[in-house]
Amino acid sequence: MYIVCAEHLAMAIDEFIEEFGTAPDIYELGKVTFTDWTAPSQCEFCEEASVYLIV
Fold first, then answer.
1. CA dihedral sign of residues 1, 24, 46, 35
2. For residue 35, what pLDDT is reported?
3. Which residues of the chain have pLDDT under 50?
4. What pLDDT score does 9 carry?
5. Are 52 and 11 in contact (CB under 8 A)?
6. How far apart are alpha carbons 8 and 12 in whole angstroms?
């Protein structure tokens, strides 16, 4: 699972495919809600705001 900004979306997809051997599901954090989980506010690769959840 990756939480990333728009700039690092492609990098996260590549890493996901390399690790799991399949294409990920991609969600825009502003369009989904979770009852038991709060998304980190920053990208895993930089200090920018997180925009996408890659699972």
1. negative
2. 87
3. none
4. 98
5. no
6. 6
Number of domains in the chain: 1
- What pLDDT, on a 0 to 100 scale, did the predictor assign at position 39? 87
Pair of tokens at residue 43: 């990208």
Tokens matching residue 36: 């038991």
pLDDT at site 10: 97
The whole domain housing 37 covers 2-54
DSSP calls for 5-49: -STTHHHHHHHHHHHHSSPPPEEEGGG---SS----SB-SSSSSB
What is residue 8's predicted lDDT score, i.e. its pLDDT? Answer: 98
Q: Residues 34, 1, 46, 42: what is their CA dihedral angle, to the nearest 10 degrees?
A: 10
Compute the distance between CA of residue 40 and CA of residue 20 in angstroms, rounded to an integer: 22
